[in-house]
Amino acid sequence: MDNINSNNDFSLLTADQIQGLVESIQDAFGGDFSRPVFSNHLLALLEDIPGFETGDAPASLIEAAWALYRTAEAPGGCE
Fold first, then answer.
1. 62: exposed, middle or buried (C-beta count within 10 Å: 0-12, 13-18, 19+)?
2. What are phi and psi of 57, to 5 degrees?
3. What's the distance, CA 57 to chain centroid?
4. pTM, full prediction
5. Going by C-beta distance under 8 Å and a sequence separation of 6 or more, which residues neighbour residue 20?
6. How much of the chain, in percent, has pLDDT values that exceed 90?
7. How far apart are CA 26 and CA 3, in angstroms?
8. N or C: which end of the chain has fewer CB within 10 A?
C-alpha cells in the first residue's frame, strides 16, 4: 500500500501535454477567448484527467496554458 499516491501527490503535466490541451480547446471551441472563458474551457478538460477532477488546477498550469494559447493566437504563432 505504500506505493499508492494520494490525490494531492500527482505530477504536473508536461509541456507537450499542456500544448495538447490548448490545441484541444482551439479545435473544439475555436479561439479568441478572454482569459476567464479560456480558463473555464481548460478546467472542463482537466476534469477528465486523474488528479485534476476536483477543479483545483495549479495557477502555474493555467498560466502556462494561457501563455501558449496567446502565443498560438498571435499572427505567425505556433500551430
1. middle
2. -80, 140
3. 8
4. 0.73
5. none
6. 44
7. 37
8. N
